[in-house]
Specification:
Blueprint: E1 3-8, E2 13-18, H1 26-30, E3 38-42, H2 46-52, E4 58-61, H3 65-68, H4 80-92, E5 98-102, H5 112-126, E6 130-132, H6 140-148, E7 153-158, H7 164-167, H8 177-192, E8 197-201, H9 205-214, E9 218-222, E10 230-233, H10 235-238, H11 255-271, H12 286-291
Parallel strand pairs: 3-4, 3-10, 4-5, 5-6, 6-7, 7-8, 8-9, 9-10
Antiparallel strand pairs: 1-2
Length: 292
């Protein structure tokens, strides 16, 4: 268990306190290549971070929060401020996992210098261990620029959500030999540039295996292959909070049903006046009544 809790009596909130455990490091994750699979989940809030931290090696503050938290149609509108605010919350809620934060669309593509300024701000204001950016060969110089200046980088190839407008949708990638070759080149370029890990998303399974065997970076699959060095899912997908279940998702729980059931029970209790009950109310102490 990586986190213990102290109850704040003024707010009734459980606040995490450090246990005698060191947070995992980027080199420790990099050393897992071909060994014990790396477990990664997305997290956007301190509370989710608290719950996931004991079981994960990495927590990703993904720009998928645009859709999951804010109801946006894609990740493209996500702002740097959103990523920093949620990233800081996840760092505060965790003590074991390596926390990685997505650089949002438009905040790093223009030049390596722009990427460095953005990434430096993210790390300073959140305390995270590193950043993730999308793109292949074209982004390799930027990855190298960041790594040479002390910023750990996770790459992202295959289905890259920030490029959804150029890709024409969220379909699986690598169905043609030409596209497979391009994605493999992208992964090699990012790994060779110094990324310690590369997310492989939404590609045909043999390609994910080939990439994993071809590069030195730890590969994290999502809709890729069990042969990758690790796996990541959007936590809300894994928990069953959405009606749509993409092919690459396995629901490990149906939390939506439980939440809706709890809301229904609460509404019924309010309407029939069974809530609040005696146990939920504050009364004048008996000794105060006796003095009157």
């Amino acid at each position: 268990m990586s986190t213990t809790y102290t109850l704040d009596t003024s707010t009734s909130r459980a606040n995490p306190t450090p246990a005698p455990m060191r947070r995992l490091s980027v080199p420790a994750i990099a050393a897992r290549k071909g060994k014990e699979p790396v477990v990664m989940l997305t997290a956007y809030t301190a509370r989710y971070a608290q719950l996931f931290d004991p079981h994960c090696d990495m927590l990703l503050v993904g720009d998928s929060l645009g859709q999951v938290i804010y109801g946006l149609p894609s990740t493209v509108p996500v702002t740097l401020e959103m990523m920093i605010n949620h990233g800081a919350a996840v760092v505060r809620g965790s003590y074991h996992s390596v926390v990685i934060i997505d650089l949002p669309f438009g905040s790093y593509e223009a030049s390596p210098e722009q990427a460095f300024a953005t990434a430096a701000r993210v790390l300073k204001e959140t305390g995270a261990a590193g950043v993730k950016l999308e793109g292949g060969e074209a982004m390799a110089p930027t990855v190298r620029f960041l790594v040479e200046r002390g910023i750990p980088v996770v790459g992202h190839v295959g289905l890259t959500p920030q490029a959804v407008n150029a890709l024409g949708g969220y379909g699986a990638r690598g169905k043609s030999e030409a596209e497979q070759a391009k994605i493999l080149r992208d992964a090699k370029a990012i790994s060779d540039a110094g990324a310690f890990s590369v997310v492989i998303e939404g590609v045909v399974e043999p390609l994910a295996v080939e990439i994993t065997n071809a590069i030195s970076a730890v590969t994290i699959g999502i809709g890729a292959s069990a042969a990758c060095d690790g796996q990541v899912l959007v936590a809300e997908d894994m928990l069953g909070l959405f009606d749509r279940v993409p092919r690459f998702v396995r629901r490990f729980h149906n939390l939506a049903e439980q939440i809706e059931g709890a809301a229904k029970a609460y509404a019924e209790a309010v309407r029939d006046r069974s809530f609040p009950g005696e146990d939920n109310l504050y009364q004048i102490p008996a000794e105060s009544l006796a003095r009157k």
